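mind reviewing these tokens:
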Amino acid sequence: MKIGLVTPYVYPLPGGVNQHVRYLYENLRLRGHDVRIITSSHGLQRSSEGDVIRIGKGFSMPANGSVGTITLSPRYLSQVRDVLEREQFDLLHFHEPFVPFLSLILLRLSTSVNIATFHAYGGFSPAYEFGSKTMGSYAGRLHGRIAVSAAARHFIDRFFPGDYKVIPNGVDIARFARAVPIARWQDGTRNILFVGRFESRKGLLDLLKAYRILRKTGCPCRLLVVGGGPQDREARRYIMTRRLGGVEFLGRVSDEERDALFKTADVYVSPATGRESFGIVLLEAMAAGTAIVCSDIHGYKGVVRRDRDALLVPPREPKALAAAIGRLVADDRLRATMAASGIERAQEYSWERVTGKVEDYYGFVIRRLAAQGTLPAGFHADVPATLRTIAARNEGMTDDPAALGVPMFDEDAFDEGAGPAAAR
């Protein structure tokens, strides 16, 4: 099929949604699809770069306790029409489709099959509350809806009720298998790692308070901090005023260095305070074989298994955080057991498996529309066959659908509201 992946965040700037789009793009291409990424520009980027199509300009703004993007253009309608006419997409896959304004214009003018993935999670959202009263017609143009977790599904279903298929984020297993530890940090001192944006919802200050407690108890550890953000000065001031040693601020690092840091770490800590829909960084830590301490919040509990892949602690409680970190630092056997469990768990979230589930959902939605006689006029590809049909065609070669390279599930039981296990 000809597929357009639409991201309202300026691709390829760092971020969970853009990372998701990148790996989905790569793996859909490996499965034989013709794929483009539709996004906006930021700064002096060219309007088109290979399979990346840029429409409008992206501007940063506060959103959900972090920083989001809105895209603007004085010629949106004509630009979008030109792109859709030229590319002739069979399917458009929108990521956070209600972020203004690129996705909304594309959705309004699309004649393709429209599928959306919802990544966000939070409490009450005035923006979504307003949107639920004004964007019903846009939601009605979606033929299929995906949420990256049960938490994300619960959040979006409050404002736009409907059937949502839960398909999780993925992780590049091979990338972390190739990573090697950084020699300078392999000196016998246990390494605690934080990777994230320096903002209140990521909980860095809570981690610094917990680390101070650990240092007072004589715990032989150092803290490696990766990232940046609005709390940078506050975090550094906390360290200086308390003369807190053993903290290394590494700033923003390359993907390769970050992978190596995960391999270097003995314990990865994610003390987020909430509003996390999934926790991709937990997958990365597990794939690297790093023991985890993280907050006991909805978005994380669907990724890690309590006391098997991670120790979960209440958010905003530095003493509990320090106790969990100290327990892992002191117990080599527990760390090793948890690391092995995490590596095994991460295999379930490989991008090959996740992309297979997304592709299967595309097929499910398209077959449903075809059966109803409501396939959009812009869909020109063949209607995807069911797994049973594929297996029947290949009966002379194999009777094992799993050997066909696609995840096996019972299509009759393909419940859009079910969790990821339904598609395994």
The CA atoms of residues 286 and 342 lie 4 Å apart. The longest helix spans residues 351-372. The chain is about 40% helix and 20% strand. The longest strand covers residues 52-63.
